[in-house]
């Protein structure tokens, strides 16, 4: 029973050994790459399964920053194409970056959302070699992650060594074309972002010819190649000439002429007076229309008492006419909807037969009847 326990302890020891801080040297002026091996961190997430040789292939992403800082140092860049690929820290340190850089790496398992911290120490040390003669090549059929692994860098070095004729070549910089204003390619096979590779040597470009490339996708585009000669150092800018520190005497101070006075009146008229006058005219116009030209009011005021009396008579005449028209509907029972449902006082419902009204008694408008009048036949 003790065996699994021991294997687990062993696994924990192995894991803690693997996550121990790695320390790397990065010489100034030389390209530096640190590959974040996904498989190693994968095993750290699953220490026991590593012993038994079955490590699941989880998606893993990395977040990198300089210790006590939110981001990486300026010279160091990070890239990872896909959570199933390795990540890379890369860049070229310069003289001012010398010293110890502690890079914190947060490893996130995107399946289980477990995380842990790791760190790598990068010591930027002095120049290992001077590379005054440099050349930059553009490799169109590559992406930055495909060029960063050491084996691919070696292949490119071999190709360039053959055409340069120097054997001390070193990488100065590797940059994605996207960082140089390149365009994101279509997501189709055969379209690549492109990579700029800068190599340097101590030797002059003795022969410079387009050689063949071992790996087709490493071939360079010749029209985008540039040679850089840093062998003669730039002369430092001339030191500023120091004066005596005392202002020279003589000559009167001539103040600069003030600009000619400007007339602001036209601006004032255009921005203040004109809109104000316009608003006033519109206000007066609206006031005149509202107060003096309301036709509806005039008509009502013009209704004399005679006219009102006439209206009243017309209404009464029309009502009488309607009543007489209703009276001619002989034999047809009144619509049920016009009849009361039951006697209000007794609650008695009229028998259907009793509903045959005399035409004269049919109330035209029920609501006008007195509430307590029995609407049943009165005969
Ligand atoms: C390397 O390339 C990057 C991106 O183009 C640039 O910012 C950096 O200055 C370059 N470094 C050197 C040493 O050329």
UniProtKB/TrEMBL annotation:
It comes from the Eukaryota. Gene3D superfamilies: Immunoglobulins. One of its GO terms (molecular function) is calcium ion binding. It is found in: Membrane. InterPro entries: Cadherin-like_sf, Ig-like_fold, Sarcoglycan_alpha/epsilon, Sarcoglycan_C, Sarcoglycan_N. Residues 1-22 form the signal peptide. Keywords: Membrane, Signal, Transmembrane, Transmembrane helix. The chain crosses the membrane at residues 268-290. Residues 25-124 form the Sarcoglycan alpha/epsilon N-terminal domain. GO terms for cellular component: sarcoglycan complex. Residues 131-207 form the Sarcoglycan alpha/epsilon second domain. PANTHER family: ALPHA-/EPSILON-SARCOGLYCAN FAMILY MEMBER (PTHR10132), ALPHA-SARCOGLYCAN (PTHR10132:SF16). This is Alpha-sarcoglycan. It comes from Alosa alosa (allis shad).
